[in-house]
Amino acid sequence: MEVARQSCSASIARARRCGQVARPKASSDTDKAKLRSEERIGLFGRLFRFFREVVAELRKVIWPTRKELLTYAAVVIVFVTVIVTIVGLLDLGFAKAILYIFGGNKK
Question: How far apart are CA 17 and CA 37, in angstroms?
Answer without folding.
Answer: 28
